[in-house]
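In practice, a research group might receive sequence data for several interacting partners and want a quick structural hypothesis before committing to experiments. The following worked case mirrors that situation: the sequences arrive first, and a predicted assembly follows.
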Amino acid sequence: MKTPTQINHRFFTSCLAAALALGAAAPTAWPAEAASPLPSGMVDFAGRISHNHWRLFGPEQRPELEALNRELRDAQQQSEKGADEPARHAARERLAVAAGLLLERVKSCPRLLRVDLAGGRPVLAANGPIELPGDTGALLFEVLAGGEGVSYTTSLTDMSQPPGESSLVTLDAAPGGATFAVAGLEHVPFGRTTLTLEFRRPGQSSVRLPLDVTTPAPGRLKLAVLSDDTGEPAPAMVQLLSQTDGSARQPGNGLEFAPQFDKQGNTSGARAANLPGPLHEPFWCVPGPVDMALAPGTWQIGARRGVEHEPVFQEVTIRSGQTTQTVIRPRRWVDMRRRGWWSGDDHVHSRILSDQDARRLLAWVEAEDIHLANIVKMGDIYRTYFEQRGFGPDYRVAEGDYVLAPGQECPRTHDQLGHVLAMDITGMVRDTEHYYLYDQVFDTVHAQGGLTGYAHVNSGMFHVHRDMSLNVPRAKADFVEILQFNTLGTDLYYDFLNLGCKLTASAGSDVPWGGTIGEVRAYAFLGRKPFSAEAWFAAFRSGRTFTTSGPMLEFQVDKALPGDELRLKSDRRLQVHARAWGDPKRMAPLRLEVVRHGAVIRAVDSTDEQRAEARLDFTVDAGAGCWLAARARAGDGTSAHTTPVYVVREGLRFWKFDGLDELFAKRLASLAEIEQMVAEARRLDAQGELGTDRARKQLAWQGDALLERAALARQLYEDLKRLAETERPRRASLAH
Amino acid sequence: MNDNVQTARGRRRVGGLAWPLIAGLMIGGPRDSAAHEQLAAFVQHRILLTVGERYIDLSLDLTFFEEWSAQERRAMDADGDGRITRPESESYLKKLAPALAQQLKLRVAGRELDLVPLYDPELDLLGSSQIGPAHHRLRLWFFGSTPATLRAGDEIVVEDRLWPQAKALGSLQVEGRDGYALEAATPGDPGLAAARPGEARLFHARCLKAPRTKPGPPSLRRTTDFFQSPRLPHKCGVPVDFGTPHLCGSEGFCRARPSLRL
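A structural hypothesis for the assembly, expressed as C-alpha cells:
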C-alpha cells in the first residue's frame, strides 16, 4: 500500500513560522478556537497531489506530500469529531500547521503557473510551452482573482474523449482571492497541443486562455517474454505501468476476448487476477513479442507465466525516437510436470467457434501455464452461452502440452439446486423438460465417459448443498470446486466427506467472472505418463488431485496418494508425509496442516523467511477408518488443499462416526428445502402467479420427479443411519 | 496510441466530501435481483489491511458484477443518454463518497478506530462507458492511527456495510510492517450474505506480532532522508548501504530500483 511516512514534530514546528508568514492561509486566518474555516477544496487537493500528481513536485517530495495529506485529513476529522474540546483544539492547531505547510509546498513548486484574472485583461504567465513528461501529466496553477482568501480545486481532462474537435480544459476557481488548481491531463497527443483553459468563477463569466503544452516524441518498446523451458518467446501475461503517471497501458498485441465472452462477466482483456498484492493489478495476455510506441519515461513491465513461475517486475526507460529492447525470462520456481503433476482449470467460459477463437484462448492458457482447460458452454433453463463447435476429442484444441477441452456448466439453477460442471464429454447434456433432475445429467455424462461435479462449492452459492444432498451420496458426482477467486471453502466438502462420500477436490477460475485463467487450479497426477487430455482426465477421475492458488502440496499416507483408498484389515500406524512449498519470494511464511475428518491433527509453520517450505512426517492410528488430507496457506493469502486419502477399515465406512447426527440433520434439512421449494412453485403455478417464469413453472411441473428423488435420498440417509447402528458394536470393540 | 490506454480511460476521481448522503443509492438493489441470485448479482469485496508503526491502512477494491454494475451505471448516467461521461461519473462519486466512509468500521481489540478517507474514490469502468450489464471497479482508501496498545493476539475486525443488499464475495488480505505480523481469518462462507439493517459483513484478522517498542513522540530527525538513514534490515535484496526504503517489506512493494536489488 502507500507510504507509512511520518511527519515529525520539529519538521512541522520549523514550518509553522513559514506558514504563519504566508498570510492568507496562516493559522490566524481561521483561529484555532473557532470552527476551522478551511480553504475550500484543500483536502481533496492534497489527496490528489499526493496520490496522482506528486511528480509535479519531484519524487523527493512525495513522502512529505503523502504525510501532509494524512495529517490534513486526520486533523480535519479530529477537529470535528474529537472526544472533547482540548482534543478538537489540538486538532485544529495541527490542521493549521498542515494547511500552512501545504500552501508553502504549493507556492514553492517550480512548476506553478500564475494566472491573473484580477486585472482588466487576464494574464497567464508561462514562458513558452509547458513540457509534459509523457502523454499524461498535470498543470499547477495559482489563479488570482483579487481580494483575500485561498481555495483549492482539481480537475482531470481525458483528451482522448474531447467534446468534438476540442482541447478544452476547465477549472473552477473561487470568485476572489487565490485559487490553487491542479489540472490532470490524460492521453495528450504527441507533440504540441494548444489547450484552451477555461476558468469558471461563480457569478462571473468564464475566462478562456490558451496554453501550449508539448509531449515528447514517443519511443519504441520491443519486449519479448521467454519461456524458461525453451528460452523462446512465449505467450505471457504482461503489464505496462507508466511510472510517470501511474496508469497502465494495453500492450500493442494485448488480446481482447470480449466477443468470445458473449457480453458476460468482465469482458475486458485487462485481467486483474484474484491473487494478492501487485498480481491483482491488470495484466494483458500477449501471444508473442510486443512491439509498440510508448511515451518516453520510466515504465514498469510486469510479466507472469502462471503460478509455477516467479512474476517479474522490471523497470525500463523509453527514450524519444529510440527503441528499447527488453527480454524477460520468468524463472520457474517449480516444475510440477517433472513431478508428474499437470495443471488444469475446470471452469473457463469462452466461445470457440473458429480457429481464431481457439488461438486466442490457447495463448491465454499458455500464458498462464494451464495444461488442461475445461472450456465450458454455459446453460440455464432458457438458453445457452459460450457456444462450442462441438464436444469430444475431435473438438479439443491442442498446442504442445496445452489443451482446450470443451465441457459444460449446465444445469444451472440459481435459487434452487446450484450449478453443475461436466468435463470430457462428447455432447452437451441439457434437457429443459427435466432440468431439475440433475442425476439424469450426471448419468448421461458418465455414459459418455465424462466427469461430473459441482461448481462454487467453496462458497456454497446457489444452494448447491441441496442437489449435493440428493446426489452425492448416490455417487453421482465426481468432483467439487473448493477453490475459486482465491478463496478456499471446505465446509460443504468436509460435510460430505464426513458422511463417507468420496469427492475429488477441484478448482476453477470461472473466467470471465473470475480474474484470469489458472488463478486457481487443480493439479492431476499423471506420474510418468506423457501428458494428454485423456491421461489428465484419467488421473483426475482417480481423484489424484490437489487444488491451489499458490503453494504446492505433496501428500502421501503410506504409499497412497490423494484419491487413493487404503483398505486395512486391522488397525495399524500409518505413515503420513505432507509437504507444502511455495514461491520463495512471495509465499513465506507458510502453514501446512494435515486434517482428519476435517480437524487439524498436525500443523507446522515454515521457519525460514527465505524459504516457503514446511513438512510433516508422522504416524497416526488408522483407527476405524477416516479420510486424511493436507492443506496449506501461504503468507500472501494463497492456499492449497488435496483430495483426501481414504483410509477404509474392512467392513466400515470411512465417515466421521461421532458427528453423524449433525451431518444427517443438515442433509435432511436440505431435502426439506427442496420439498418446500417444489411446494411453493406448485402453489404459485396453481394460482397462476408464475406468468412467464419458466424456471419455476418447470420446477412445478417437474416437481413429482424431484420429490421422488428427495424421497430416495431420505431413504438413503435412513439406510446410512441403520448402517451406523450396525457399525456401532464393532467400532466400540475397536476402540477397546 | 490512445487505444492502448486502459486504466486511465476508465478511471474517475472525485473531490468533495461535504455532499449529502445518498443512502438510497446504496440500499436499493437491482430491479430483478430479488428473483434470483446469479453470480451476476454479486459484488466482490477485496479488502487489504496494512498495519504499520503509525497507521493502519484499509483499502477496498469493489468489483460490481453485471446486475449491480448495471444499476450503478444507471445512477451514473445522469442525462440518460446511455453513455457515462467523465463529469457524470465524477458527480456520481462525489455524491457517493461521504456515504462510503460511514459504511465502514474498523475495530481493533474491540475498540472502534476512527477511519479517515486517504484519497478520493476511483472508478474504473473496465473499458465500457455504456450503461447496462458490465463490470466496474471502485477503489477506496482509508486510514487510521495505529493504537499504541495494539498487541499480539488482538483481533482486528473490518465491518463492511457497503451495498448491504448485494450478496458479496469477500476476501481479506493483510500485511504487517514495522515489526507487525498479521493473520487473516479465513471466512467460513466467502459468499457473504447480504447485510441486514444494522448488520455488517465481518472480516477478521489477528495481530500475531507487535514490535516491542511502540512509536513514541515523533522523531526529531527527518525520517524521509531515505539514503542517509542508518542501515536497516532488508527483504528485497537491496544492498544495505543504500539505506532501507520505507516501503521495503516484500519484493512487490519495494520501491527500490530493480538495478539495486540482488
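Before designing any experiment, note the following. Residues 1-27, 31-36, 217-235, 238-257 of chain B have pLDDT under 50 and may be disordered. The helical segments of chain B are 7-10, 23-27, 66-76, 86-102.
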